[in-house]
């Protein structure tokens, strides 16, 4: 509701509905405690867990990388989910059942039929399930006992993954701790066995394929080498590199000697030319015999050099031709040599891959490890009596709060002081508590007594009752409203504060009218409640004028009221009237009497 002081309003709602807010959580907690205790004594559930490493295949890793690259998922989660689906399949559950039969026997490993309340509930559940199946499908097929046991084992297995890792946590829940531990261990062992078989099969298939490819490559290499030998014989090449080196050396040596001969030839020609210039052909003026002999020898040397140079040039040309011919023979041999090198490289690569597969085969079995084998639990995992009781209490409290808040949200009835504050032209006063109203009733003989009471008797009755209930002492009739501080020694500060708040506080705004105006106390539905409230108000805040009491259900009310009043006090109970109706009634009273209107709840 708009305009309400929320904190005070809801605190008052909680106080008003305290029985509901306390009773519902207590009832829920008691029920949860009883059911949990019964289940703990009759059908406890034990949990055993083990952890095992996950070994993804290359295909799974490749797929997970491509999948994760386009999403926000974790690669480990994508891979392990596939393994989880396999481990929770019927195949694994059937193998687990077989292992349990072998170790514990078929009767011991079977899920025992529960008796008592649990058996009755399961029978009711089965009957309802059969009825629904007949309605939906037209018939009901009874499942064999073995299939039921396998279904129970599948239901008992729970597998989680350790976040961002290749580790799975396998849990099994059963009413026997040893069977629960055995189920978890068997599932882990079955996963290890399956992964090992897959690794061996995968490596064996790949190894067979690579061995076949290596044999084919070796056969091709042998054929290439035979072709190379045949070609060498055909071309007359024994050792191509040696022949090439010999020809190159021959060419280089011939070129060097040719250069030397050319130099000598040039020098010889110069010498012959110089000697020939001095020869005049005359006996007296010509060359000497020695010079003639030297000229002849030089000419012969020149001719010899020219002949030798010609021979060397022919040898050099023949060598170049031989090199050219050798190069032409080398091309097919080079091609075959390249093919041989490729074949050898291919064989080496296949051999390396086979070695890697052999290492993977030996390491694959060790890669899948059971990190922490399951052990029989010492204590049952379910039910948790204290946890269930606290959770039920909290749930009951939440339900009660929701009920109170829904009722408050959907209702316009006046239930709290904040609701009274929504009535225009009025002032709301704190409510009179049930304990104080009941105490006043007892001390004054009930609200039906018609005789007026003096202020001294009223205050004395309140004081005596409060003293008997809280202080264990009797307060005398000399007690007066002005002497509230003297109660500290008898009632204590806390009770004194509560007495002021809930008995005197409603009258804090009421002051005696100096002109003796009348006080009007009108209750919404009860003359008795109006009389009780009027007496309490009169004794705690006496009015100098007359006090008129009545209720809105009295047909003579308007004829008995004065024409004008000093103050009007309207009393009512919780949820008796809506705010809109109360506003209308209060408006009529205010216009009729022309006095300030006070609203107060009377609880009791």
From TrEMBL:
The keyword Cell cycle does not apply. It comes from the Bacteria. Keywords: Cell membrane, Membrane, Transmembrane, Transmembrane helix. One of its GO terms (cellular component) is plasma membrane. It holds the Pfam family Wzz. It is a multi-pass membrane protein. It is found in: Cell membrane. This is Uncharacterized protein. It comes from Brevirhabdus pacifica.
